[in-house]
Amino acid sequence: MKSLTHRDAWRLMEKSRLDAVETARLDDHLRTCSECTSYARTDRFLRLNLAVAPVRSQPTPGMHKAVLLQAHRGRNQSGMARLAGSLAFLVLLAVIGAVALYAFRVTSPGASEPLAQQLASPLQTMVAIIAPPVVATPEPSPTPRSIPESPAGRIIIDVPAPSLASSIIGESTMQPVAVILPPSYATSDRRYPVAYLFVSGNQTPDRTDEDDLVEIIAAKLTSQGSMQEMIVVVPAVRTVLDTEVVMANSPVTGNWEDYVVEDLVPFIDQNFRTLPQAAAQVWPAGRRLAG
Amino acid sequence: MERAEELLRKGRYSQEQLATALMDAHFATIHHIAYSILRSIEEADDVAQETFIVALRSIGRYRPGTSLRAWLSSIAVNQCRDRLRRRQARQRWHQAWHRLHLGQPPEPSPEVHAVRGEANAELWHAVEQLGEKHSVPIVLRYVHDMKAAEIAEILGVSEGTVYSRLHYACRKLERRLSAGTLETGLSGVEP
Question: What integer pLDDT is reported at residue B7 of this predicted model?
C-alpha cells in the first residue's frame, strides 16, 4: 500500500467520515509522522473549541431598506460617475490643448509668423516648456584660453563649438580641451599623428587622473620607443547638466557628433602640426561614450 | 418567493426582488462569517449590509452555475480582511502611542475578551494574533466547517496555499497555547 503524503493525510482529516481503508492508512501515517500527529491534535482541538454562535439570522428592516436604497443609488451613481468622468476628461483635454497652443504662440519667435511655421518644431517647443533652457552661468574668465606661442607638454585650450549653440540645455559654445604634445614638438617642425581620447567618468577635462595617466603612459611609451610620438587630444565629455555626453546629435543635449567632426578636428588640424586627416588619426573611445 | 439563482438564470427581476431573494437565502451565513472573523456585531452588521450592496451593484460579475454562497462569502471575507488590516494598523498605532506617552504597552487583548465574557479567551486571542492571512482560513475551516477547496475559492488562492496556511497557523497556535489549554480542550475525546 502506497504511503500517504502530508497533503493526503490532511485531506483525510478534513473528511467527516472515513471508510476502513482510509482509517487504516491515516493511522499508519500518523504512527510514523510526528508532524501530522501534531497537526491532527491541533485540528481536533480547534474543531472542538473554536466555535461562534450566529447572532443574527435575518436582516433588520432598516438593513433591508438600506441595501435596496444603496443598490439603487449606486447604480444611478455609477452611471453619473461615468458621465462625469468622461466630461472631466474632455475638459482636461481642452485645457491641455489651450495651454499648449498658448505656449506655442508665446515661445515662437514672432506672432506675425503663420501658425504652420510656429508649429514647425513642436517637439523642441514642448521640451522647452517641460524643461526650460538652463540659463548658462557666466564664465569666470570671459576670454577663452588660447594656444600659447610655443606650446609644449600638456596645455588646456578652449575650442569654439558653434555646433552646440542650438542645444536646449544651453551647452557652452567654448569647450575646454586638453592637448598633450610630444617631447620633440617644441624643437622640431615635424608633423605628428593625433589620438583623440574620450575619457568617460566624472572628471573635468582641465585636470583628471585619467589624462595624467595618459600623459605618463604616452611619455613612457614614447621614451621606450614602443609608440611613435603623437599629439593626444582629450576633449570635454560632460554637459552643463553634469551628465556624460553621448556622442550623437541631439536637439536637447547638443550636436556633439558635429562638434567633434566639424569643430574640434578642424581646429586641432589648423592650430597644431598634425599629419593629414584619416592617414594619421586614431579615435580611442572611453567607456559608455558610443553614440 | 423565487430563489436568487432562478431569478438570475431567467434574467428578469427587479432590484428589490433580487435583494430580497439574496438576503433571505444568504444573510444568516454572511453575517455569521463576518461576525466570526471580526468578533463584533456592529462591524458584522456593516459588512453584511455592504456585501449585499456590492453584490447587487456588481451582479454582472457573478458567473451563473457557480456557487452564489461562495461568491457572496468571498465579497464578505474580502471586506472583513480590509477591516482586520485597518484594525491591526490602528492597534499598532495605539500601541506605539501608549509606549511613547505612557512608557508601557496597552492592556493585553485577552482581558478585553474576558470583559466581553467570551469563552476560550486564550484561544481567540491566539487566533487574532495570527494575522488575517492565517486567522481567516482557520475561522472558515473550523467555525464554518469549510473544506480547503471552498476556502480556496473564497480567498482566490490555490488549494495548496490554503493547506499550507492552515498547517502554518495550526503549528503557531500549538506553540502559543499553553499545554494545559490543549489538554483541557481535548479531554474526554477519543483521538
Answer: 84
pLDDT above 70 for A141: no
In A112-198, which ranges are continuous DSSP H helix?
115-118, 122-130
Closest alpha carbon within chain B to A12: B147
The shortest CB-CB distance from A68 to any of B16, B127, B167 is to B16
In A17-30, which positions are buried (b, 16+ CB within 10 angstroms) versus exposed (e)? eeeeeeeebbeebb
Round to whole Å and give the CA distance between A133 and B145: 69
More confident residue, A44 or A277: A44
> In DSSP terms, which residues pair with A158 in a beta bridge?
A176
Q: Could you tell me which of B176, B141, B109, B147 has the C-alpha nearest to residue B36?
A: B141
Cell numbers representing residue A283 in the block: 579615435
For residue A240, count CB atoms less than 10 angstroms from its CB and return exposed for 0-12, middle for 13-18, buried for 19 or more: middle
The ipTM assigned to this model is: 0.79
In this complex, is the C-beta atom of A52 within 8 Å of any C-beta atom belonging to chain B?
A: yes
CA angle A16, A20, A24 (to 5 degrees): 95
Q: How do residues B8-31 score in pLDDT, each as one tens digit?
A: 888 788 888 888 889 999 999 999
- Residue of chain A whose Cα is closest to the Cα of B139: A50
Beta strands in chain A (DSSP E): 154-160, 174-180, 194-196, 231-235, 249-250, 254-255, 281-282
Model confidence over A209-219: pLDDT tens digits? 555 666 667 67
Report how far Cα B93 is from the mean position of its chain's Cα atoms.
23
Residue type, A249: N
- Which of B57, B140, B190 should be substituted to probe chain A, the one whose Cβ sees the most A Cβ atoms within 10 Å? B57
Which of A42-56, A131-145, B79-93, B133-147 is the least confident region?
A131-145
Q: How far does the CA of residue B30 sit from the closest CA of chain A (Å)?
A: 10
pLDDT at A1 over 60: no
